[in-house]
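Worked Example 4.2. Consider the chain below.
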Amino acid sequence: MANKYRISLNVAGLTVSVNPVFDRLSIQEERPEGEAFLRSKLDTELTFHRGDFDYLSGLTIDQEVIIYVEQLQNNGSYEVKYTGVFTKTDCTWNEDDKTCKVKPRTRDDYEKILQGLNKELNLIDLMPEITPVSYVKKPVIQAYLFDSDVVANFQQGNYWETPVIASNVNAVTLVNDYYFAVGSDFIYIPGDETLSPDVSGKYSVADGYREDGLYRLVNESGKVAIEIAATGVNVYEGVTGEAFINAGNWLAPAGLLTSLTSSSAVQGFRISVYLRYYTDKTNIAGVPTFDVPENDIVSSNSNYTHVIGLNADNIKPYAGHSVTPTPFGKFSESSENFANEYFELYPSAGSEAVYPASKSAWQYYSLWFQFDSFLTTIEDAYSTTVTLTDAYQLHDVIDAYLNELAPTITHSNTADYSQFFYDDSNNPIRTKLLRPLLTPKSNVLVGNYDQPAKKAPLRFGELLQFLKDFYSVYWFIRDGMLILEHIEYFERGGSYTTNQIGANLTTDLEPKTAKAWGYRTNQYTYEKTDMPERIEYNWMDPQSPVFEGYPIEMLDNRVDKGNVQGRNFAKFSADIDYISTAPDEITKTGFVWMETEQQGQGFFVPTAPITFEGLNLNIQNGYASLTFALDEYQKYQLPCTNVKINGEVTTAESVIKTKIQEVFFPMNPVEDNLLLVTTGIGSGKLKTREINLLNGIVKMILKHDQ
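Applying the procedure from the previous section yields the following structure tokens:
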């Protein structure tokens, strides 16, 4: 009778049969940490003796030994169930007993890739195919709120802040040295209809009148008052000798004005906002621009070389307030009205192009910038298309790494390699047809570069980790192909639409008893893992708010308070506009990640319509923003059902499987370990599988929905 198994060694192409001793002969399949694929290992220590010992002892110390474990099949042939490898240095030698013990390492398609994940390589040297990609470089409107420490930046559909680096900032240098112009200058009294009378609003610096002409700020006998403009009757008065506006710090209040007819009191603020265009054009609307000052108010760069002042009264103050939390922060505790309440969204921000201005300086009121039709016309007229001639498509980068690390494994841009990234017609999660590209960051930092980056160090593991953390996309190998799919594909057994079942233990019958193999196996436990309170994401560099996004928060009683899971995009940034305008904030190494559309033979970076904090924005490369990714890709396989994503309470599309079931089967019912197994509990995903080659029993640990 033939043996149920046989073991052989191959050294330098020569195969010999061996007969090691072992306690058991089983193959264990389990997932490496953080991966979606199952990998086999021989869960057995083999002991070689007699002639096998002599044979191994006679090898050189660095000689590679390949080991094959085969199992007898019903047709009488043997099938290789495990391939491993070892050298003499992996063995434990006993010269007294003439024994050699070893637990081989697995040799499979994953081996070389896993060994090379942390090997830093210069992507340029790998020579992936080059793909040009174009994006639009828009002029930037820069706004400086007097006495603040940031400059607010605006483009149609986007906003961000950059720090002030100059120390000599005043009304004179802003105009003469930094080429700003006064955009808005007024006195603002925060308040609402709860004031009696309601004197809140904008007042003219020149004559003291409120915008509607009903009230007027006056200085009478050394004290500030608010009078009814038509009658001159005071309704609010300050303290004699006490200033109403803080001339030393315009962002902080000075004195109070109290109502003469009620308990109301108000504070006043001088709001002076200076504006300029930041551009690469030598003129705007026929008016010559100035070279960016050598020592500018913000860090300078080669992308934007000229500036010109902008006279536009587009700043909107607002004192909207709420006791319900909002994304915009809180009023100062020293605010006379609405202390510790939350700033509200500007009323028309959802329908008009109105964006937060100098948000980091908000304490007693909020400021908003209106990007009107005139500014839109200017932006459209003075934008420039920039073509990066040295960018790389994702599939070309992966293929280049595989050629270096594992030449027998392939990857290409067809649906066979990734429905998620490359399938134009059958992609229920990534519904918009986009093509990921990356380029060394220096190609974007250096405006109009003529010498592309020569060094672009990147580990293959860093690229694959980014795909996991940003897209929830995992890799596996099948038939020599490296395949990339979203986590939901694996949870359904290898499909985005319907569960793929490899075995049904509720219908497959045991021959002797005619009962289902799943009979009386419906016992389970729960896998107890720490549920993070939140998942935080971090790009390599600072980004604008839309790209930075929000953490995902778990709203569940089982949450482990203080447990914060971090996902760091260690080598990648995506905010092209921010990178172009704030180079001192950006590290010179790493890559810019772009989501592009194909247009003819070329690729371009589109704008994405994104709603963020109640604002309707159009963001260049916004499909690569965290705000977009969280909504599109990160709602799946979360720890719990109720979550907060992008600041909004919502429901996860799916949650991780934590119900654990152990089942046994007298053969291997699931050749493809991605497929699900149906039991009386449901259709479960393989967590681990152990195949006993001696008795043919298969033990499967399945994970089911909660």
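The two ends are 47 Å apart (CA to CA). DSSP finds 13 helices and 55 strands in the chain. Compare this with Example 4.1 before moving on.
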